[in-house]
Design a protein that fits this description.
mainly alpha, single chain
Length: 84
């Protein structure tokens, strides 16, 4: 009992550091395998890619279409019915 009391100044901080490190490891594991966190990161990466693509298109003067957008272009008749 006396040795435990005398050793507390050394063993107590070591136990506290070990506890903190285990908690940090638990949080890191949770974030590493959390699907919601990964989905948020993928959305941020996709948005950054679209932003870079839009900025590059503005510099070159090309038209910019959002990802997944569908455009319908209506072409007028080449031959007018009254001209026949």
């Amino acid at each position: 009992m006396l040795l435990k009391l005398l050793g507390l100044p050394v063993t107590l901080p070591a136990a506290g550091i070990r506890y903190c490190l285990s908690k940090v490891a638990d949080v890191a594991d949770r974030e590493l395998y959390d699907v919601d966190h990964l989905n948020e990161e993928l959305i941020l990466l996709r948005d950054a890619k679209e932003r870079r693509k839009a900025e590059a298109a503005l510099e070159t003067g090309e038209p910019v279409a959002p990802a997944g957008a569908t455009y319908v272009v209506e072409m007028p008749d080449l031959v007018d019915e009254d001209a026949r």
